[in-house]
Structures are given as structure tokens and as C-alpha cells.
Write a structure and sequence with these properties.
The protein is α+β, with helices and mostly antiparallel strands and 429 residues long. The protein has helices at residues 6-23, 30-39, 41-55, 76-84, 95-101, 117-128, 138-149, 158-174, 182-195, 205-220, 240-265, 269-280, 289-301, 333-337, 378-395, 402-407, and strands at residues 61-65, 68-72, 90-91, 154-156, 307-312, 316-318, 321-323, 328-332, 396-400, 423-427.
Length: 429
């Protein structure tokens, strides 16, 4: 397959790949998130991928970067192929991903190839009860969500919301004893900030050691009802405690999705009414379908996983061309989620697409990825986030700062900086 020309490679790097790296793939950089919103970088990425799709007969489009080949996936069928054929031949443990995750979760399933991958994936699926629509600890999780969300009052920004959300996450994952253990979150943030630079950042061995020891203590003294209580006490192949950092990491992204969803819902009284009705009559919608759809719309419109990466372990054939083993395939989620030539609802906030099947068509909408490496915690995350949205709207009237209200008044912006909105929570009588 012919590589992109120097000009096309430069445009693809500048308009598609560089904005992903700049914003922080592992921990968002607030100043660059704000700049990304001003420049609407995801709109530019969509236009560039469309151009490359036509110019290179569908791609994937190989781009040479620092001596490596990165293939930008441009066709929907190629997205499905790459994700459905994970981990063979398309490994989720790409060179860049492994370099990043080694900073804080070196034994995570995402950084593992077979044979280590299989026991780690199985452990995650069993602990998170991937095959079950409702987790065994759902009742306790929802009680924690309600208790912590009731602390949100008056006007807050992202940082204040994240403090409360992090307390909620620590309780759900590690147990009530971890509620006020801000050191765990702070040290994970330090490690994630270094992980943004992947293998180019020096390892923070002391921080990593303290963080790992703290996680191990919570696992060893697992509280009933916590997620770590679902882990086996000993499993040398899977490293149970080594899987927990990713749960904390993923739940942080879930908080971003909730915050954005709340900002949009503050401008959509019709949806607020539906979610409130649902909250008061759970027997008619036990899984909080509309609230869950709102969270999924937040993830569709503004994916928290900016790019899905896979690396081929063998040569692969593409429309009569061969890409060599070691090629890294990059799927920029927003490019597919927001393509208004393929999706009539691309730029609308429309939770019903998750209820009526429109989000389940052939076009790739992948907020939790898909295939064998699909997020094993999808149901747990949706239970937690939909409970948070539902409870907050049932108990509070929301108000939104004028600047963000204006931004969300029409078609949804392609890029939305979650650190900017300020939301007011006024308790209903």
C-alpha cells in the first residue's frame, strides 16, 4: 500500500494525530484542551480523514513517523476488521501504549499480549461481571453514587466536581476506607502525566512503588461490596492488584463524560423531564435507559478515548497491498462518531439513538471499543454514570454558565473542553 506523500503525511500528522497527543491521551492537559476547543481540532481531523479516504481509495493510509509506520484507518469496514481481529493479528498492546501504561499499570490487560493477556482479560471480566447487565454490587454502587452526588451544591467547576467524583470512584473501586485517600488519586495523576510522554518520560519509580503498595493494601483488605473484593486473593499469572489502576483511570474518563452530559442536559429541559420521570419510576426502566443514553451520547460526541490503537504482529493485506508486521493502526474515534455524511444525528445530542438501535448500525460508533478487547467494565461504568446523572437531575435544577450555554445552543461542537463549564446545582424543594 503506497505511503502518504510528504505533504499528505504532514497534514495528517498536524490535523489528526498531533492534536490527540497534545491534549494528553492518558491525562488531559487543561490549557491545550481549551486551545483545542477554540480551534475545533476534531472538525479539522474529520475533514482531513475524509480527504485522505478519497485520495487513497479508502486506506488505511500509511504514514512514516520517526522510522515507524502508522496507518490511519479511514474506512468503517476497516475499523471493524481491526477491532474484531484483536489480539491476533492486531494487538492492543502497541509499542506506544505499552510505553505509556508502564508508568502506572505495567501488567494491565491493555499492555499485554498472549499468553499473559488471556488470564488478565478473564480476571477483569469476572471481577467486573462483563457478561451481566447488572453487577452483583450494583445496589451498593448506586448507594455510593447517591451519597456523593448529594454533596454537589451551588456553583461548581470541573475541578470541584472531580474531587467529589474521585471520592465516589475510590469508594466503589477500593472501598469506603479509601474515600478520603486523595494521595492515591494524586499519585496516579503524576504517573498518568508522565505516561502522556510514553517511553520518552523517565520512570517515577518512587511514586509508582508507593502507588502500587497502596493499591495492594486495599486489595489485601478488600471491603465487601467494593470492586477489589471481586478479585481472587492470589493469581500470579493475572496480577489481580495490577488490574486495579486501569479501573481508576477508566472511571476518571467516565467522570468527564458525566460532566459533559450534565452541561448539555442543562440546556435540554425536555430530556431532563424524561430522565426525572425515569428516576421516579425505576420499575419502568430499571437500567435508567434515558440517563444511560445521555452518557453514551456524551461519549459518542466527545470520545474520552481519543484514538484506538492496534499493532499488527504479522504482515496484513489491504485491497491488494501489504502492510508489514509492526504497523500501528490508528482509529480516531471522533472522525467516525461525528461524520455527518454517514450519520443524520452526527451533531445532535440524541440519547434515543442508543434506545432505538440507530447507534448499532454498520457505521462504527465505538465509545467502549468493540470486539474481543471491548471494555470489560462497560456495564459497570454505565450503571455508575447513569445513576449519577439520574440522581442529580431528580434532586436538582441545573444552571449553566452563559458562555457554555451559547456553545451548546445549536449543533454540538466537534470539540468541547470539559474543564471550562461551570454548573450550578440548586436543590429542589
Amino acid at each position: 500500500m503506497p505511503s502518504a506523500s510528504l505533504l499528505d503525511a504532514s497534514r495528517a500528522i498536524g490535523d489528526v494525530l498531533l492534536p490527540v497527543v497534545a491534549r494528553g491521551a492518558i491525562l488531559r492537559r487543561p490549557r491545550l484542551m481549551h486551545l483545542a476547543e477554540r480551534l475545533q481540532v476534531d472538525e479539522r481531523a474529520l475533514r482531513e480523514v475524509r480527504r485522505l479516504r478519497k485520495r487513497y481509495d479508502g486506506g488505511p493510509v500509511p504514514i512514516r513517523i520517526a522510522g515507524r509506520t502508522v496507518a490511519l484507518v479511514t474506512e468503517p469496514e476497516d475499523v471493524h476488521r481491526v477491532l474484531s481481529m484483536t489480539p491476533t493479528p492486531f494487538s492492543a498492546a502497541t509499542t506506544e501504549k505499552v510505553g505509556a501504561l508502564r508508568h502506572f499499570q505495567p501488567h494491565a490487560v491493555l499492555a499485554s499480549d498472549p499468553p499473559d493477556r488471556w488470564p488478565r482479560r478473564k480476571l477483569n471480566e469476572e471481577a467486573l461481571q462483563t457478561s451481566q447487565p447488572v453487577h452483583r454490587h450494583a445496589e451498593r454502587m448506586q448507594a455510593v453514587v447517591h451519597e456523593e452526588m448529594d454533596r454537589l451544591q451551588e456553583t461548581l467547576g470541573w475541578n470541584e466536581f472531580r474531587e467529589v467524583w474521585s471520592q465516589l470512584v475510590r469508594r466503589i473501586v477500593l472501598g469506603d476506607a479509601a474515600r478520603d485517600d486523595t494521595t492515591v488519586t494524586d499519585e496516579l495523576d503524576k504517573l498518568r502525566a508522565a505516561a502522556n510522554w510514553a517511553e520518552f518520560a523517565p520512570r517515577q519509580h518512587a511514586v509508582r512503588r508507593r502507588f502500587a503498595q497502596a493499591i495492594s493494601r486495599y486489595v489485601d483488605a478488600a471491603e465487601p461490596g467494593s470492586l477489589v473484593a471481586m478479585l481472587p486473593r492470589k493469581d500470579g499469572d493475572a496480577d489481580p492488584a495490577g488490574q486495579v489502576p486501569h479501573w481508576l483511570f477508566a472511571y476518571d474518563a467516565a467522570g468527564i463524560a458525566v460532566w459533559r452530559a450534565l452541561a448539555v442536559l442543562a440546556t435540554r429541559p425536555d430530556l431532563v423531564e424524561r430522565i426525572t420521570t425515569e428516576a421516579r419510576h425505576p420499575e419502568s426502566s430499571p437500567l435508567l435507559a434515558v440517563a444511560g443514553g445521555a452518557v453514551q451520547e456524551s461519549l459518542r460526541l466527545w470520545p474520552t478515548t481519543l484514538v484506538v490503537l492496534r499493532e499488527s504482529r504479522t504482515d496484513t493485506e489491504w485491497r491488494g497491498h501489504t502492510l508489514p508486521a509492526g504497523t500501528e493502526f490508528a482509529i480516531v474515534s471522533s472522525v467516525f462518531h461525528r461524520d455527518d455524511e454517514a450519520l443524520e444525528f452526527a451533531d445532535r445530542f440524541e440519547p434515543d439513538v442508543w434506545l432505538d438501535g440507530r447507534a448499532e448500525g454498520d457505521w462504527p460508533i465505538i465509545p467502549f471499543s468493540e470486539g474481543p478487547a471491548r471494555c470489560p467494565g462497560e456495564n459497570v461504568v454505565l450503571l455508575t454514570t447513569s445513576s449519577a446523572v439520574s440522581h442529580l437531575l431528580d434532586r436538582n435544577t441545573l444552571d449553566l454558565d452563559p458562555q457554555t450555554r451559547h456553545l451548546l445552543a445549536g449543533p454540538m461542537p466537534k470539540t468541547f473542553d470539559h474543564t471550562h463549564p461551570r454548573l450550578a446545582f440548586w436543590r429542589k424543594a
